Amino acid sequence: MKRLVLVGGGHAHIEVLRDLAARPAEGIAVTLVTPFPRMVYTGMLPGHIAGHYALEECSVDLAALAKAARAQLRLTRASLVSPDARQVVLADGQVVDYDVLSIDAGSQPLVGDARGVAEHAYVVRPVERLLQGWNEVYARAVRGRINSITVVGAGAGGIELALAINHRLRSTLEPPHPKVSLISDAAGLALPVGARWRLRRRLRRAAIDSHVGAAVAEVGAGYLRLASGIEFATEATFWVTGAAAPGWIAESGLATDDKGFLLVDAQLRSRSHPEIFGAGDCVSNPDRPHPRAGVFAVKAAPVLAANLRAALQGAPLTRFKPQRRFLALISTGERHAVGVWNGFAWQGRWAWRWKDRIDRRFVARYRVG
Model's pTM, two decimal places? Predict the structure, then answer.
C-alpha cells in the first residue's frame, strides 16, 4: 500500500481530492492534513464580507470531499517534514508516514519590521482567522463601538477588502458609519494604469482615504503608527500585505528560494526531494515565475493530480506551463467589478455578474452529493 499525504486544503488539493473521488486509485492510502474542515474560496471572500454571499455559498466542505476520496482527514497543521524518514510531524505531536508528499499549505502574512501585528491586527491568512476577526469587528460596529477601520495593503486583496467592509457597514448600519482607510508602503498599485485609475475612483466614491507610500511601523490597541511618526486612531486593523513562506518548509531542509518558498521544477516536484510535490502560494519556480494568485494554483491542480498518481505508479510526469496572461476580476464592494486582462481594464455591474458566474461554477465543482 502506497501512502500519499496532502498537506494543506488549498485550491490545488481540492482538485486532487476530486480527482481521487472520481477515479479511485487502488493500493493508495491518502491522508489530508489541514487545520480546518472547509476551504473558503478567496475569490468570493470579499463578496461574503460585503454581504452578497452566505459563507456556505463560498466554501468547499473538505471533510465531505476527503470522505468521497476515501482519504483520512487530520484536522491539524504540519509543523515539520523529515524527508529522510519520509514523515510529516504534525502540530498535535503525531507523525504521518508518506511515500509521496504534496504541499499546498498557502502562505502567511508578510509583516516585515512592523511591531504588534500578531497581537493587534486581523491578518488575512489563514482566512478562518480573518473571518473570525471580521465577525468580531462587525458585531462591535453594530453596537456603535467602532469609529474607524484600517486596511493595511493596497494590492488587489486590500482594495477588495476595504471596499467590501465599507459597503457592508454603509448598507446595513445607520449613520454615522465607521471610517474605512487604506494604507500601503507601495509606491503604487501593482496593476495596469487603467485598473489603478478605476479602483482609485471607486475608493474616492466610497469616501475611503488611501495613504500610499506609507510604511506601518507599529499596530497597537486602538492606534496605528507609520514609520514617519504619524499616528492614526483605529479600533480595528486588517493586515492584507504580501505573502511570506511558511517557516517549516525551510526548517525541514527542503530546497527553497531566498524567501523560503518551496522550490519546484516544471513537474511541480521539489528540486531537492523528488518524492515531494507542491503547488499554490507556498511554492516557487524561478524558471517560470508568476504572481501569487489563486488562478495559478487552480491551473496547476490537474497537473498536480496527474503527477501524484504518476509518481505513485512510477509513470512519466507532466509539465505545468503557467499562462503568461490571466484574467483578474476585482470586486468593488457593490455588485460591481473591475476587470483586467493583458494590460487592459474595464468595469461595470456586468463584470461582477461575470465574476459571480465563474466563482459559483468553481465552488460547485467541488460539492459532494
Answer: 0.94
